[in-house]
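SAMPLE LOG
Freezer: B-3
Tube label: C17
Construct: single chain, 280 aa
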Amino acid sequence: MKASTNERLLELARFLKTRRARVSPEQAGLPSSGRRRTPGLRRGEVAQLSGISADWYAWLEQARNIQVSAQVLESIARALQLDAVERRHLFLLALQQLPADHPTAEPAVSPKLQSFLERQGSSPAFITDQRLNVLAWNKITTLIYGDYGTMSAIDRNSVWRTFTSSYVRQLLRETWEAHARHRLAQFRANYAKFAGDPWWMEFIEALRETSVEFDSWWPQHDVLNGPEGTKFNYHPTGGLLVFDQISFAVTDAPHLTVTINMPANDDTQAKAENLLLAER
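STRUCTURE (predicted):
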């Protein structure tokens, strides 16, 4: 066994032991069995909660080089009550890959994150999930890209809106195709984690039936991630707006992405501020 593999498995074993030690039987919903020599759950109790054999779980904590499935890791993560960051760490140590997340229809955006968006002022800022649904936004976002608060759930999906909204086409003009291809490639990259999931399959089929461009480009299997660089928006009253885009994942909610479009010049800064003033 390679030294790097051995060290990874040892790190996995140490991680499991520390997470097991912090969960009491009461917290796990198990009856208390009196005083224990060590804190936390026993190996057999973790195995019981995870639905696997005690020997198999013990091999993990002994740093043995055994095959482990994502389904078993999910069970262990639940048994040890791991948070999102710890769960990702578990998957990286055990499988050297990130878990496929299964978000709810509307993952929660914390008040702190919403406050962060609002503090961006004249920079349109919004949060998307792995399906590229827009979940939260600030005021200037609604003034430039549309009032997400009044849209239906499907229209708040940025892929759907890109390919079906005449307003978006007018806003982007000659840059629409590059934007649409980029958005589709982002969506396709995320789809790899959820291939076969009913929501994704139904959404893709609906969009292929609705958009000629999406139906034509989807089979090309283009994938990428990251921001789109400089964006040119032709606002119906504000005129040409030029933004530099930056995106980043939320540390304690890695399934969420924050995107900020920063005015690229003084003219765009002034126009964005005027749009906000006109709403007061």
